Fold this sequence. Notes:
This protein is an alpha/beta fold.
Amino acid sequence: MKDFHVHTAYSDGEHSPREVIQYAIKAGLEEVAITDHDTLDGLEEAIQTANQLNMALITGIELSVDANSSHILGYFFNYKKMQEDPEYQEIISKIRRAKRTRAAEICEKSKLDPILMQDKQGNNYQITFDLEDFGDRAIYTGHFGAKMCQVVEQNLGVRLDVYDATHLFFKAKKYEKFATTKIKDLDPNYNSAKVDGEKTLLDYVKLEKDNKYWHVSEDKSAYPSAKEAIDLIHKHGGIAIIAHPDEGTTRERVEFYLGLGANGIEVYSPKNNGGIPYYEGLVKKKHLIATQGTDWHGKTYSPNKILGFTGAKIGKRLDAISAW
Ligand SMILES: [Zn+2]
Ligand SMILES: [Zn+2]
């Protein structure tokens, strides 16, 4: 069993590379690829751990391209050479800067207009952020989600799914879930004297109606083009794979990326909604590489995913990189 798409805390994952390798061993994986967003920084620790614990590790990266509308996975490249390459450094630092600028604005907004919470005893709490909370790194919305979860858990005793929480506070699309789901169903381990499990979280957390008041748009121009990303991966001896195409990438764009030299498609992804037979057919027809990965972000960050399993959607174990 193999999993070629896993994140660590060096991007927006929950665990250190060391812990990820340990989880991969526990899950019985034979091979794992660490594919952090827009950074190679976690690979050193991952390689050391993999060597110590005798785990097969594939060096990987997931580059956000074309205004972050699509993701390109890279594997098997010489990561040290890539890390020293000024082109890589330029790409990465542009993204990092844009993300920090955006994060600084979100922190400002949070202080001007904090999210207010009140428990059933009438104690008041608020959620605000400081840029210093996040250290010197690219800051993702998931980091804000994680921090929100911490504050909610500390003060209300309710443990939220980090990604749901991120959507709740930044986007409207998951708002309904929080407005309609009882706390005891939201958190299966709910056991808090501070809130009533029969109520919804929104009875205790006050959000504006469209809950978009902390939303800050990204500077999309900071991202490289798909061509730049694919060329960078190839330059260092790697293969470039179009990540989870059903999330954000149109089928036309998949063809376009293949035309740019992408070597294959992440066909087996829980994010590929119904697209699997189509992409399977495409890679077979064009003799490309099909990869398989869960896009696991951590034990509690990805509660519905199991390392090495694509989950209910295709109900199939991840076994190998296949080249047709
Ligand atoms: Zn992705
Ligand atoms: Zn990913």
